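Appendix C reproduces, verbatim, an entry submitted by the partner laboratory led by Prof. M.T., so that reviewers can inspect both the input and the predicted structure.
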Amino acid sequence: MSGGLGFDRARLDRLDRHFARYVEDGRLAGWQLAITRRGATAHLSSCGFRDREAGSPVADDTLWRVYSMTKPIASVAAMTLWEEGAFALTDPVSRWIPSFADVRVYHRGSVDDVVTVPAIEPVRVWHLLTHTSGLTAGFLRTSVVDALYRRAGYDMGSPEGTTLASLCDDLARLPLLFQPGTAWGYGASTDVLGRLVEIWSGQSLDAAIADRVTRPLGMADTVWHADDARANRLAALYVPDPVTGLAVRADAIGDRALSPPAVLSAGGGMLSTLPDYVRFTRMLAGGGELDGVRVLAPRTLRLMTANHLAADLRALSTGGFTNAVFDGVGFGLGFAVVVDPVKARTATSPGEHHWGGAAGTVFWVDPVEELTVVFMTQLLHLAGSHLVPSEAHPIRARLRQLVYSALVA
């Protein structure tokens, strides 16, 4: 299904042929794409298999691990509570999680001889939403603080017996990577935000997100694990072979999605289908409303999708694993935001907001062109046992090129 709404059908066909080659040569098992404009579907396409070894093709109801694309959903849930007056963006996190009252910041030294200094200002809710808190992640492997996270048991998972509340307390006892508000760093900020959502709402994170985002939007298949009724629709997970770059099945990691998670991760714990996530992006494009259901006020969404950083990510990022281009891109409340498309080397519009997941999924919303794009696949970018930046195959950059090249009116 393609064409119309300002798109050239032949150019959309060219887009599909380009990504079909990723399946034909074995770099991906399969993929799925949806483009909407002005609230209507402009293009739907798919290629390959949700389970290559079983010969099961990608289907409309395929469940994908969206990993960090959970973050925008959780951020929207948090901001529904902001609209109810549950918190102010400048409130210190320690108001609700007391262990954050006396956080310290890494200054110098090795893992065995760390020197820290007091935080100049408290970690605030705004810092969590913008990833400027100083929290990091063990799997990044770019700093002494990352190593301290791993030593505490936080790498690509959590120690046995961890709860969302105990995770927050553990992270608060570890040093921050930088002074709050002075840099941008990918990490556990949204997981701590998820705990705050529980406290503010008086519900578990899954119940709060269901009540505030997924159920109102009709996202019935955006869930935390594939239960028995959904298991046969779950896409297999693949990783790139370190030598050939071809997709190799990774059931040891992929099968975790078949069981309820020990800790609900607002930073990366959800599964979704393409139709479900398209509904989420259409709500964003619709100023917080979809099909007569309002999730957020338009002004709230404009606040979330504005750049809150003093400079772009090139100047402020601590590096490591990220789903964002650095040049010309800032960050809002849960979304990367394009500030200068020329610096970002993209044909998108200023104000476009986006994010992606570790297994190659990505979405963006272009408010100028009234455009949404959602791409699903399952290639987790691992080097050895740790995550690496997900542009090992330049799926996202190519996707933007080809989508905007097909938009002719």
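The two ends are 18 Å apart (CA to CA). Additional entries are available on request from the coordinating office.
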